[in-house]
Amino acid sequence: MSAELISSFKPDLLQTAEHELCPGCGHSPAWRVVLDVIAELELKPVLLAGHGCYTQLMTNSDLDSLQCLHGRAPAAATGVKRMLPDTPVITLQGDGDMVSEGLHEVLHAAARGERITSLLLNNGVFGDTGGHMTATTVVGQRTKTSLEGRDPELHGTPIDVSRLLAQIDGAAYVARGAVNSPGMVARTKRMVRRALELQMAGAGFTFVEVLTMCPTGWFVGTAQGPEYLEESMMATFGIGELKAPAES
Amino acid sequence: MTKRLMQGSEAVAEAAIAAGCRFFTGYPMLPFTELLENMAAKLPAAGGVCINAASEIEAVNMALGAAATGARSATGSCGQGLALMQEGIAELALNELPVVIFNMARGQQDYFQATRGGGWGDYRTIALAPKDVAEAVEHTQLLFHLADLYRTPVILYGDYVIAHASIGVDVVPLAFPPTPPKDWVVDGTTSGTGRARQIWTWALGKPNTPGPGPSRAWEDIAAKYGQIARAEARHDVDRGDECEVLVVSFGTTAVFVDRVVEDLRAEGLRIGSFRPITLWPFPGDALDHATRGCSHVLVYELNGGQMVDDVRMHAADRSVVRSIGGVSQDNSGMRQGDLLSADVLRRRVLDAVGLPRGAS
Questions:
Q1: Measuring CA to CA, which residue among B281, B314, B279, B289 is closest to residue B239?
Q2: Does A15 contact B194 at a Cβ distance shorter than 8 Å?
Q3: Residues in CB range of A231: below 8 A, 6 or more apart
Q4: Is residue A15 assigned to a domain?
Q5: Domain B235-353 belongs to what architecture?
Q6: Chain centroid to CA A100
Q7: Minimal C-alpha gap between B182 and chain A (Å)
Q8: For residue range A170-194, what is the model confidence (pLDDT) as tens digits?
Q9: What's this model's pTM, rounded to 2 decimal places?
Q10: Are B347 and B317 in contact (CB under 8 A)?
Q11: Domain of A214, in residue numbers
Q12: Given A4, A202, B69, B193, which residue has the most CB atoms within 10 angstroms?
């Protein structure tokens, strides 16, 4: 059997394959695995998205969607899930949205053990605004608001939100993947699948962080994105399951 | 039809549940706290959910999410907490989600907040200001209806007196005309059908179901508020026999005005009262009519002068409008101060019309 090229067909859950994301952007492959898992599990979820480049992934997807205020998707998702306890609820946020503006909301959603799946597309930079420092920008990363590179003396250090969430009892599953290689994409897909399965089993708050490439925001060449991610963000944060219930 | 002695907060909670409220959330803050406590105690038994939120910002966004599923949803605080919610209130207005917001205010300094709002965009919030607990019970139910009818956030402007007064009340469920079907909810049922729904302030829709986009959507929303302004203004007026003096007040302060007007009228003064029941839409036409022929229009509000702007805008002769209220809080900052007094009000009315304080 020949391998199917990822670009050779459009998932049914996308209403269009057209998008305005930059060449080399990691959001598309990350979202692709989410849509594939939703289809494989035959879920009919509600999607809540924040504000960022990835918002168009919500718009283009054939999923009931609620656009949320910056940082507030986990709070709004709480209202949705409490009224629709049997419906899968997924939030989609970037690092600026979740970790800079909305750290409060995601931590408290986890602490309540809300039975939602929160997804963080972490590229360590405000891509939509044109390359500014977020709470996850790694030390040394040049942005338009850390011109000489993020300096701990001046700008502090990046927040590892997965590590924070893994310490909270209400969080049932916390994992960090990436999309800078086919192997990483496959591994991330397994994480997303596990998170959604656990949500549907009522396990508690489930969380998958995906490190994604943003060569535009990082001011590196498009083709350098995957390798740069490995050297910068992956080296800082690491990859793997930080918290998972024993396999049943 | 039996009255039961209960605190205003309990009566309002029962009214909200009678109106179908099934999601409530808030962050404790006096004098809103008891409403949250009562909802926490009563809502689960009615099949609903009450969440003690971790902030007012979280609360308003939780309420927004619940409303997006079609549930009747509410939150609240006092004016200080509503200040934190303003971004969410604007969002509710501009993505057209119905949520009832209870402002159990610490005084009357939230008039601008209730009628002008602090969020961005072209929107207003219907704001009802009951004068007592019985009216608060009616207003609460009316607000859930109006929120669904117009798909908009609405505000109950209560206060310390409404929240804390213990009084005999009968919470009678009120019937309202049907509201439009909620064919816009996001509940997952249309996911994967090719016609998935989307709620977004920009109103651009999805590729298969394009929306009007922000400019058209916001124009339509602004027009909707124009329609509400024409249809929903409510007021209470007592002009007696062609009054020369009209006292304008809102909320629980009006109870004091009623008493003083009654006394002074008995003493021969041609005096009346006017109360906007909806702070927005302000009953401007009714005030214009009520103030015709008046030589004194006296605005009694416990703030630095907020509603007086609306009174001047609509009075038949703005030159006769005077403020006789003022900032007045007790040292706790939670409730009205000494200015809320029939004696003080009486003196201020008599001073304003140039009569000796002792008699008229």
A1: B289
A2: yes
A3: none
A4: no
A5: 3-Layer(aba) Sandwich (3.40)
A6: 14
A7: 14
A8: 999 999 999 999 999 999 999 999 9
A9: 0.96
A10: no
A11: 45-243
A12: B69
